[in-house]
Amino acid sequence: MSSTGEPLLGAIEAGGTKFVLAVGHSPTKIIARHEIPTRDPVTTLVQAGDWFVAQGVINSLGIGSFGPVDLNRSSPLWGHITHTPKPGWAKCDVAGYFADRLGVPIGFDTDVNAAALAEYQYGAGKGASSLAYVTVGTGIGGGLVLDGRAVHGAAHPELGHIFLRRHVEDHEFAGICPYHSDCLEGLASGPAIKARWGASLSELPTDHIAHEIIADYLAQLAHSLIAMTAVEIIVFGGGVMKTEGLLERVDQRAAELGAGYFPGGSKHKIVSPGLGQNAGLAGALMLAPLV
User: What pLDDT is stored for residue 85 in this prediction?
Assistant: First the structure.
């Protein structure tokens, strides 16, 4: 408990590139924040643990982690990253490490579910009944919130691994996903773009066909989300989405694909994160159990 009498919460946005750490009283009251690069599990987890110890006693910790992860509380692998192409991280017990090191209750979910929850409550989805959060960067992932709850099902959504209708100008590239080759992540993630065209999307000329192709693939995801879940708000974040004009291209192409059919009409919106780069961290703070 802090000197103000409010619980002091910890949060980790555990990404494949960096871990973002924070302590605060709520998602809107962050006291301190720190970033460390995602190296091997031992180095990364120890550095994160050292930082939390230096902040003083926290009451609980919320973790939004890159995945896939095990979210089944009755499973012996709950809180673990399961299978991942990131070297060394498969079967890593992320939640267990911090529970042992810090001796506090742990809340655990995917980083994209955490971001979706935060955007739903505090960001672009305020006042809506449903929201999907999609991040397009090193990988592609997504979380879905319906009526205030993140969708889990048998595990958690893996929106980056749906299959697409290939663009007419994109039939030669095999895709880079080690599991599915030309799924959405295998075709439209940052590394897929670089493997195909030798540069990031933002580095390519604005009239390059890559912009049309990537927008088409992301619009197909948006179309599928609307068709399957009738979701109101679709938030696109991540490094690739910083490309100038990409969000507008996705929005326009999704409207073309919808062809005016969906009964939700103008309620369906494709937008940038209302919380900017803080969505994942705010969501992780929301995951911290209140004790």
Answer: 77
What pLDDT does 3 receive? Answer: 55
User: In sequence order, which residues have a C-beta less than 8 Å from that of residue 127 and are 6 or more positions away?
Assistant: none
0.85 exceeded by pTM? yes
Domain that holds residue 17: 9-110+278-287
Beta bridge mates, 142:
134
- Going from the C-alpha of 186 to that of each of 68, 195, 209, 290, the distances in angstroms are 16, 10, 18, 39
pLDDT recorded at residue 4: 63
Same structural domain for residues 129 and 72?
A: no
Helix residue ranges, H only, the chain: 41-55, 94-102, 111-122, 184-188, 190-197, 209-229, 246-258, 279-287
Q: Are 232 and 259 within one domain?
A: yes
Over residues 54-69, the mean pLDDT reads 94
Kindly state whether residue 119 falls inside one of the protein's structural domains: no
Q: What is the pLDDT of residues 261-285, one digit of tens each?
A: 999 888 999 999 999 989 999 999 9
pLDDT of residue 2: 52
State the CATH number of the domain containing residue 36: 3.30.420.40
128 CB-contact burial (10 Å; exposed 0-12 / middle 13-18 / buried 19+): middle
DSSP-derived pairing of the beta strands 60-65 and 140-146 = unpaired
Q: What's the alpha-carbon Rg for the chain, to the nearest Å?
A: 19
CB within 8 A of 147, min separation 6: which ones? 129, 130
Single-letter residue type at 96: G
Q: Are residues 135 and 72 in the same domain?
A: no
